[in-house]
Every structure is written in C-alpha cells, then in structure tokens.
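sry for the spam today, last one i promise. struct tokens for design, 96 residues
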C-alpha cells in the first residue's frame, strides 16, 4: 500500500489506484485497511492510503466527509467513490 501525501498525489493518481482516505484514530478505517492488505495481491490495481490528519488539503480537495472513503482515480480524475467499510466483493466491483 502506497502512502499518499500532498507531494505525490498528482503523480500517483495518473495510474489506476484506489486511495483510502482515513485517520489513525478511526476504527472502521483500520478494518478497511486490513481487508485491503489481505486482498491487494488478488486485484489488478494499486492501493494508496491517505491520512487526512496529515493531508488536510487533500481531504478538503476531495470533499472527504466520511471515513473511510475509497476513491478510484485514473489519469488524475476520480472515477468512482465508496463510503464506509467495503468487503472484498464491493472492492472488486469498485475496480471493475
């Protein structure tokens, strides 16, 4: 899982990537991260993690209001978005 920061956001979102916007103190965010880490090698997309406590401007720029929020980016643009904890089937649907 790639750490997404204000410094690398533009570069990383040029390829197809799912970014999880979360916070270290968010219990559901930890659950989501565990689901992703257990399954990331079975899916054909990269995963990124953005801690909104350290990347406040990215959270604002992407209108993050619920944690966790998963956004699929490609070519610098948002393709899809899901709010809350997602199971593996939902993640596969998000990528598809």
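last one done:
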């Amino acid at each position: 899982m790639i750490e997404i920061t204000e410094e690398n956001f533009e570069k990383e979102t040029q390829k197809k990537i799912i970014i999880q916007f979360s916070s270290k103190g968010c219990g559901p965010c930890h659950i989501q991260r565990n689901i992703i880490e257990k399954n990331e090698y079975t899916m054909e997309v990269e995963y990124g993690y953005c801690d909104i406590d350290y990347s406040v401007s990215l959270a604002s720029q992407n209108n993050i209001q619920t944690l966790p929020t998963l956004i699929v980016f490609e070519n610098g643009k948002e393709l899809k978005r899901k709010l809350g904890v997602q199971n593996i089937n939902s993640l596969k649907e998000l990528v598809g």
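The CA atoms of residues 71 and 81 lie 4 Å apart. ok im logging off now
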